[in-house]
Structures are given as structure tokens and as C-alpha cells.
Amino acid sequence: PLVVMSMNGTVTECGLAIKGMLEAEGYAVLVFHTIGTGGEALEDYVKSEEVVGVIELAVNEITNELMGGLASAGPDRLTAAGKRGIPQIVVPGSADFINFLGPETVPAKYRRRNIFSHNPQATLVRTNIVDNRALGRTIAHKLNQSRGPVVVLWPKMGLSTLDRQGKPYWNPEADKALLNTLWKNLNDSIPLIELDSYINDDKFAKEVVNEFMKLLMPG
Predict the structure, then answer these.
(1) What is the rounded distance in angstroms from the CA atom of residue 75 to the CA atom of residue 95?
(2) What is the pTM of this model?
(3) Backbone angles phi and psi of 209, in degrees to 5
(4) Dihedral over alpha carbons 77, 84, 145, 180 (to 10 degrees)
(5) pLDDT over 90 for what percent of the chain?
(6) What stretches of 16-134 adopt beta strand conformation (E)?
(7) How far apart are CA 103 and CA 119, in angstroms?
(8) CA–CA separation, 84 vs 75, rounded Å?
(9) d(Cα 125, Cα 102) in Å, to the nearest integer?
């Protein structure tokens, strides 16, 4: 049985831990990286192939679509699994940034923001409260249309390698804006589970796998 998973470099530890646990249970795991083309390929794959479940660990492609970043996967990201009724676990990982290339590609309106240069061709802009409210509404709208079961998991101690205490993008107020918007806009039928852990903690990965198994084998 095949599981499709999204991730990127800021949630790699979580993704690899989940992949290892699922493979130990007999699943095959196909990983797509959320760089724009990766999300497009994920949606195309899920539309047409036999997939038992989808685990989304990074939502930055949706942020990029909304905020004019350079790693958008288009307006239909996070819709294919819902339309087919495929079970989904969604973690708002990497919601703390908008992707650009070199520093010169960052629009003027973002240049006073918290900017992090990962390398000469990867410049990140920290999302703010307004961005995250828009992101939360968009994610909720997409998931509310799902025909299959969905569970959203929230790591309270940080959403990426950059977004944890002591790191450059740690901003509890911005993260809380996203969380509160999800609570306000998600259908009551979609559980939103808050966990006292950081996204790349082993215990968080174990909870993702645990909730995923419950979706696939209810009762």
C-alpha cells in the first residue's frame, strides 16, 4: 500500500522518521518536496494513482501562492486527495516562511521583514499575523471540501527548523494567528489536535503515524 507525503528541508527529520515507521509497517512511502513543482507533481499523482493515504508536512507552497512567493504549486494544491476521498493527515509545517530565490527576488514590500538567507538561491521571508490568517482560511476552505477523513495536527513548540525557541523565525504570535484561524474556520468534523512538541521531535512523528493508522483502520 502506497502513502504519499510532502516535506521540505525544514521538516526533514519529521518526514524521515514517519517514512521509516510506515515502511516498517509494510507501507511504501513516496515523498514530494514542496518547492512548487513538487506539489504540482504530488497533486497529479494523487489524482490518478492508487494511494491509501496522504501526509502533508509542509504548507509553504500554499503560502507562496497567496503571498507571491516563488515556490507556488498553483491554486489547486491540497485538493486532489480531498476530491478522491483519500484519508489525509495535515500538519501546517513550514508555515513560517515565503520562498524566494536570490535576495534581489524579494519584493520591496517584504524587505523590512525578518529575512533569512538559506543560501545564495534560497531567501526566506517570515510570515506575519496577517499572512497566517489568510493561510489558515485557505487551508480550512480546501480541507472542508474533502470527501474523505482529515485530521490536522499542530506542533505547539514550532513549525520548522527555523520556527522554534531560540531560532530566527520563532514567533508565537504569528503561529497563534494561524492556529486560531484554523480553529475558527475548519468544519467541526475535522479534528484539530494540538501536541506539546516541536515538529521535528520523534514523539511528534510517532503521533502523526498513530493518527494516520487510526484514519486507515478506524475502530
Answers:
(1) 17
(2) 0.97
(3) -65, -40
(4) -60
(5) 97
(6) 28-33, 53-56, 88-90, 97-100, 115-119, 122-126
(7) 10
(8) 17
(9) 12
